[in-house]
Write a structure and sequence with these properties.
The chain is an alpha/beta fold. The protein is built from 8 helices and 8 strands, in the order αααβαβαββαβααβββ. It has helices spanning about 5-15, 20-40, 45-55, 70-80, 90-100, 140-145, 160-165, 170-175; strands at about 60-65, 85, 105, 120-125, 150-160, 180-185, 190, 205-210.
């Protein structure tokens, strides 16, 4: 089945090819939750904390963008949030997410400059471990903003390489400059996989923004 590092090597080697990546995640789905939780990656709990801080209505409609197997939404559900939707292009991941019985709707679609959902629908959007090179482009922030209602909250994890080298820093600066949103929170930089020697240098932030309007 392979360990976490082996799967990450395959993901990085895909070069962002969508079909290859989706097939890899289909194969990884059964082991994914166990390996992610065992990795010590804290981004899910930090994001859940930011949602709890900035989305005070447990009946808010929340989109889990790039939901994978639903490990982020499971925490939100356990916290008391009642209205959760998810999207992900991997059917294998969605199959595991469905079994958790925590989503109202799950959509087999990818993140991009536009998202094939009704604009302004969601009170909040969370994106965990998906806004990174080869998974979703920086323009995905436009799509996420589009489906968020004015005044809605967006919480996402972001790796330092994605910010510095793959266009996310520039995209965030662009959205800041045009007043599309305002920052609510940003975590301290943290080790993404604390128990992995191979990934010891990888760092992440979690960010929270509020859509303008």
């Amino acid at each position: 089945m392979g360990d976490l590092e082996s799967w990450l090597d395959k993901v990085y080697a895909s070069g962002g090819d969508r079909d290859t990546l989706d097939n890899l995640y289909d194969e990884w789905a059964l082991a994914y939750d166990k390996q992610i939780w065992a990795s010590g990656n804290p981004y899910i709990v930090i994001q859940a904390g930011f949602v709890g801080r900035h989305v005070r209505d447990f009946d808010a409609l929340i989109l889990d963008a790039g939901c994978g197997t639903g490990n982020m939404a499971l925490v939100l559900h356990q916290m008391g949030y009642n209205n959760l939707d998810g999207l992900d292009p991997s059917e294998g991941m969605l199959e595991i997410a469905r079994k958790k019985e925590i989503y109202q709707d799950l959509f087999p679609i990818s993140l991009g400059e536009t998202i094939d959902l009704e604009p302004g629908t969601y009170d909040a959007v969370v994106a965990s471990g998906v806004l990174t090179h080869g998974h979703a482009p920086p323009e995905s922030l436009d799509g996420i903003l589009e489906v968020t209602r004015p005044g809605g909250v967006i919480v996402f994890s972001l790796s330092k390489p994605a910010h510095d080298d793959y266009g996310f820093g520039e995209k965030i600066a662009e959205l800041d400059a045009i007043g599309a949103w305002k920052m609510l929170d940003r975590s301290r930089l943290f080790r993404t996989y604390p128990f992995s020697e191979q990934e010891a240098d990888l760092r992440h932030w979690v960010c929270a923004y509020q859509k303008s309007g």
